[in-house]
Amino acid sequence: MKTDSLRLIPVIDTLYRLRSVRPVGAVSETAADTTALHQALTANPAHFAARTALADRAAAAGAVETACQLRWEGARLVCDLLETAAERTDGEPVTLDWEDAYTAQALLMVYDSAEDHFQISDFELATALLESVIDADPEDHTNASELLAFCYAALEEWELFDETLAQLPPDNLSTRLAGYWAAFRRQAAPSSAASESAAAKEADLRSSIQAESPALLSEWTATDHETPLPPSPHSSARSEAPRLWPRPAPLWRDFPEFVAFLQA
After folding, report:
1. What is the rounded CA–CA span in Å between residue 160 and residue 149?
2. How far apart are CA 116 and CA 97, in angstroms?
3. What is the fold, at CATH topology level, of the domain defined by 1-142?
4. What is the pLDDT of residue 216?
5. According to the model, what pLDDT value does residue 196 have?
6. DSSP of 63-98, one letter per residue?
7. Is 174 helix (H, G, I), strand (E, B) or coil?
8. What is the pLDDT of residues 49-101, one digit of tens each?
9. Pairing label, strands 15-20, 6-12
């Protein structure tokens, strides 16, 4: 199965690798100049190493729209092929081989584009891209489920949210944050907002956050936010919390009620 740029190569049973239809020349992402990267991408739109390097350089130079467009075009190449493949397998998703470097680059391109769309509050497209990544990589090497949980909560897809949250590490601060935010959104729904128990439920939620995740509550009620430290296997909840403040920024921008509730 293939498109103009990509094809699927079977490995074993239902496991596939992605391969470019055109040659993929070796390009050093750090040493190659921008002209060489553009030439490589023009010759082969499915040259994901060149595409990623160009997107990273554009983002570093402040050309965010250019970076997002590069990633989106790459993601579409992958998703178009996966959709074509699913049509030929009666809707069954194709599983891709994460251990293959080129295939992993392609999946990361889709994930990165989902992040881009999440940041501009396009939660529906971000969801579709993340679902494609997880369908193709059931072991979820990109940790797409974590971001997908926030997308489902934003879209109020509660059944899907519950299924996704149940698969995430319960002690992870991001998992807890998604759960708290979803609980707040659910109890603030029109059907329950006017009930006398709404205030009591909010008080219970605040108490739960204070007891279970004081570092999160401290970060969310602060007027100034610390610069996040680099990730570490030994990171504490207090060092993790600042990293969770900017990441779901689109949610706090579009749905400010939760942060206002915490800061009240």
Report:
1. 8
2. 24
3. 1.25.40
4. 81
5. 52
6. -HHHHHHHHHHHHHHHHHHHHHHHHHTTTPPPEE-T
7. helix
8. 999 999 999 999 999 999 999 999 999 999 999 998 888 877 788 999 999 99
9. antiparallel
Which band of pLDDT confidence, cut at 50, 70 and 90, is reported for residue 232? Answer: very low
Identity at 188, one-letter amino acid code: A
DSSP letters for 193-233: HTSTHHHHHHHHHHHHHHHH-HHHHHHHT-SS-PPPPPP-T
Average pLDDT taken over every residue of the chain: 86
Query: In Å, how far from its chain's centre is CA 153?
Result: 14
Asked if residue 174 lies in contact with residue 245, where contact means CB atoms within 8 angstroms, the answer is no
Q: Where are the extended beta strands (E) located within the chain?
A: 6-12, 15-20, 95-96
- Alpha carbon of residue 233 to chain centroid: 21
- pLDDT tens track for 156-190: 999 999 999 999 999 888 999 999 999 999 887 65
For residues 142 and 110, give the distance between their C-alpha atoms in angstroms, rounded to a whole number: 10
Question: Boundaries of CATH 1.25.40 in the chain?
Answer: 1-142
Give the separation between CA 90 and CA 134, rounded to whole angstroms: 18
User: Which residue type, as a one-letter code, is found at position 111?
Assistant: Y
In this structure, what is the dihedral angle of CA atoms 172, 174, 180, 183, given to the nearest 10 degrees?
A: -100
Structure tokens at 242: 């600042």
Query: Structure tokens of 192?
Result: 């329950």
Written as six digits, the tokens of 173 are 């601060």
H helices then E strands: how many in the chain? 14, 3
Contact residues for 23 (Cβ-Cβ < 8 A; gap 6+): 44
Query: Which conformational region is residue 180 in: left (phi greater than 0), alpha (psi within -120 to 50 degrees), or beta?
Result: alpha
The C-alpha atoms of residue 204 and residue 125 are separated, in whole angstroms, by: 34
